[in-house]
Amino acid sequence: MKIITVNNYEDFYSDFPVSQDILPPLTEKDFNLSGLDSKIKNRLFQLLISHKSAFARSTVELSAAATEHHRINLQHDYPIKCPIYKIPFNLRNEFRRQIADLEKAGIISKSNSQYNTPALFVKQKENWRFVLDFRKLNEITLTQDFVILTLEDILREISGSNYFSALDMKSAFNQIPLHFADRHKTAFSTPDGDKYEFNRLCFGLKTRLKHFSPLHKRFWKIYCTMELWFI
């Protein structure tokens, strides 16, 4: 049996035809394997490559989880209509690019909903993040109570442990399907006059943690005797 290693990975996959629509395969450059001896490095690399579908380098690589769909239960069904926020002209190309990536990934799709939530850009350290201002929709969304661990609880639980692993999920909410009957409630408009709605759970909805946290906890219990999560 041919073993995949850091050194022969590209040769191994050159035997297979690659569609132009498929993103480049993962390589050693996608992982930080520094500080490991060659034996451990190759074993870890094989493990990572054998589960390559678990890694997403960009928004367009995100897929929807096979789990129950998120619901948005409202106090009434009168559409919330908010005026759009102005996006600075120097940021509009970046805005269009992020919208295109979300649509290509299937996270959003064109909409004719009567709802409208304003979209805006939030400055991060090195880039701009597309977000929606769901405050008006959240005001009429039914609250779902849930319990989440505090940082103090987590530190108490992990005291005495010898090994620690930390995983940061990329756009975690965007991997949870949104129920078909509720997607129109997330509609937003762009400065170009287009209208979209989310097909998956999105950041800013007040009930997102109530739905996501139990899913996260239930998933990790399959693989771990003890898991802790903090959002």
From TrEMBL:
It holds the Pfam family RVT_1. It comes from the Eukaryota. GO terms for biological process: DNA biosynthetic process. Residues 123-206 form the Reverse transcriptase domain. PANTHER family: PROTEIN CBG26694, PROTEIN NYNRIN-LIKE. This is Retrovirus-related Pol polyprotein from transposon opus. The gene is pol.
